[in-house]
Amino acid sequence: MESWLNPNKNIRAQRAGCSAQMKKQNVRTLSLILCMFSYLLVGAAVFDALESETENSRRRILEQKRSEMKRKYRFSEDDYREIERVVLQAEPHRAGRQWKFAGSFYFAITVITTIGYGHAAPGTDAGKVFCMFYAVLGIPLTLVMFQSLGERMNTFVRYLLHKVKQCMGFRRTEVSMENMVFVGFLSCIGTLCVGAAAFSHFEGWSFFHAYYYCFITLTTIGFGDFVALQKKEDLQEKTPYVAFSFMYILVGLTVIGAFLNLVVLRFLTMNTEDERRDAQERASLKRDKGLLEGKSFLEPFGFDSKVRNPPKHSEAGAMTENTGQSKITFLVKQ
Amino acid sequence: MKRQNARTLALIISILTYLVVGAAVFETLESKQEKSHKRRLDARKYELMRKFNLTKANFEELELVVLQLKPHKAGVQWKFAGSFYFAITVITTIGYGHAAPSTDSGKVFCMFYALLGIPLTLVMFQSLGERINTFVKYLLHQAKKCLGMRQTEVSMANMVTVGFFSCMSTLCVGAAAFSHCEGWSFLHAFYYCFITLTTIGFGDYVALQRDDALQNDPRYVAFCFVYILMGLTVIGAFLNLVVLRFLTMNTEDERRDAKQRALMSLGKPRGEVTRLLPLSTSTSSTAVANNTTKAKDSKGAYTEVLHFQTICSCLWYRSKEKLQGSIPTMIPQEMTFSDAYLQQNSNCPHYIDPGSTGCVCSPRQCPSISSITTGLHILSPFNLFKRRSSV
């Protein structure tokens, strides 16, 4: 991985001057934008290739069936539209009562975890408004909770692995990042498979469709093409299965969250930490020159011609580098 | 109980309570309307069945055809424009479901596509959001200077206010545009923008589904894509400003604990350690305060702290060499250092040969350590969520 993607390896960049460091965050951001756009283009092309033909043929078959039925029952165009309207509006009711307590709880889960199947969506305007306020507070709370719990899980797993390594008489008993990533990955796959087995049994889906459902749910995409607890009146009648589904979603999201906490979270704070490091350097330079007088060192684009990088200041910078993403940044204050 | 565990437990209980409360409110708001709506639709359905002399089986057959035709009603979904739209809903995790892969190979590709795309998108939005925040901070700073204000530093409150207003205006702009183009009421369009930009994506309202817009109206299609991506950036910037720090709380506490354990294991007398321990809490209170009256006091602490840091860095490098095996192995991987850093030892102005206790720095040689304020904070619930550093 190029050094500018790894926040812990920019000592040489530091010595090259502050303005080059500024560019690093911008370069990184620009490349990410380009990556994402190319990724979208490639994805669109592949989905087009995979789905377009099937879509066309299915549509033709269904439209044929529709005209057959129209002829058979002698519907006029308006008649058909009326029936279509009634059927589409009745669709969410097909799966039973959606807004009793169990269904509302299910809905609340899909809101704050941002899964958002859409199998049930607030029909009243008051419900829509409350849904928005509910999400505004609930989503950050949920994000923080899952990351918090995920970190605890990772720490516990690291401890267990350490003990296991000791018991098995390994020479080096430290738990490496590779170990953790491997265990995390296996847990995710395991969670998905357990869910797939359970839902394929209870919902009558194939194992593959149940696996796809679990994946789409636990990544919080939540298309809604497959939704659990939608067989007639399951929400009201099969309480243990309902409890299992809720638990599965929450625990599964925790496992995925723990894996993300292990692997992805550090990258989310890359730019922020580079900014902090730059600010610290500016501050330590000013300190050396005796210029510290509560002046704001918010010159984010670093157009400060006095900026240099004498080697002895790399300790202060190196200190925070050594602590990785540690936020013991005493220096960052107004 | 350890701070991280208490915090995690408190969060779990809050979430469960939040869910229960939400469920109760949604039930109150929606249940009655659901019942009456269903009754009306059933009545209408039986009317239609009688009118056209349909049996139950016939009607169910009809229902199936109508429901299966539903995605096709909105136009061709999988040509390039529609696939691009779908790809956006996958990697941003919005996931409307207005179109979902029907082939098995489409489903498989969708899963792999999401596996790589979602982290990439998360990192991209946070990266871009941070750049935007930095730029806004710079603009606000310049604006404050131009307006001739006495205090030209940009505070967190300023940033949060600006961020909040950007989010609200993004939602309002989208609401206005979509209510005009899709024929929704302003409230429904606002609700659509909100549900989209928070990536919930119910799919009850979906843009580009009227009159085959995906194929016929390229400008509107482009607008929708740009709106979704830019809106997510604005929301992402606000989250980067406000929420991201909380996602790393536990990890940082663990690091701090590990550091303290490591420092303690170097044989420092207990007295010095307890004097060092409250450093982070006293710094956090000054960092969070953000108050000019404390600026002068913190400036003094700042110099001492920087001094302390450079001392500690020598200590750390030295200890790593000497105590390879005895440092607790619970230190996270991130704290092991590359050998390059060890070479900087020679530049350390505070490097002194270890004394009898193995300590490199002692209060005699480093008066700043003893002068750092002690003031042990009693661990209160509020402290659980205090941040250790400001913007």
Automatic annotation (TrEMBL), chain A:
UniProt similarity note: Belongs to the two pore domain potassium channel (TC 1.A.1.8) family.
Lipid bilayer topology: Multi-pass membrane protein
Localization annotation: Membrane
Name of this chain's protein: Potassium channel subfamily K member
Transmembrane segments: 30-50, 101-120, 126-146, 180-198, 210-229, 241-268
Example GO biological process: stabilization of membrane potential
Domain Potassium channel positions: 97-153, 189-264
Annotated keywords: Ion channel, Ion transport, Membrane, Potassium, Potassium channel, Potassium transport, Transmembrane, Transmembrane helix, Transport
Region (Disordered), start-end ranges: 304-334
Record bears the keyword Nucleotide-binding: no
Domain of life: Eukaryota
GO cellular component: plasma membrane
Main location: membrane
GO molecular function terms listed in the Swiss-Prot or TrEMBL record: outward rectifier potassium channel activity; potassium ion leak channel activity
InterPro entries referenced in this protein's UniProt entry, alphabetically: 2pore_dom_K_chnl, 2pore_dom_K_chnl_TASK, K_chnl_dom
Gene: KCNK15
From TrEMBL, chain B:
GO MF term list: open rectifier potassium channel activity; outward rectifier potassium channel activity; potassium ion leak channel activity
Coiled-coil blocks: none
Transport in keyword set: yes
Keyword Cell inner membrane (UniProt): no
Keywords: Ion channel, Ion transport, Membrane, Potassium, Potassium channel, Potassium transport, Transmembrane, Transmembrane helix, Transport
GO cellular component: plasma membrane
Topology relative to the membrane: Multi-pass membrane protein
Cellular compartments annotated: Membrane
Biological processes, Gene Ontology terms: heart contraction; stabilization of membrane potential
Alphabetical list of Pfam families matching this protein: Ion_trans_2
Transmembrane segments: 76-96, 108-128, 157-178, 190-208, 220-247
InterPro entries, alphabetized: 2pore_dom_K_chnl, 2pore_dom_K_chnl_TASK, K_chnl_dom, KCNK3
Recorded superkingdom: Eukaryota
Domain Potassium channel: 77-132, 170-243
PANTHER family given in the database record: POTASSIUM CHANNEL SUBFAMILY K MEMBER 3 (PTHR11003:SF138), POTASSIUM CHANNEL, SUBFAMILY K (PTHR11003)
Family stated for the protein in its record: Belongs to the two pore domain potassium channel (TC 1.A.1.8) family.
Protein name listed in UniProt: Potassium channel subfamily K member
Protein species of origin: Cyprinodon variegatus (Sheepshead minnow)
Source taxonomy: Eukaryota, Metazoa, Chordata, Craniata, Vertebrata
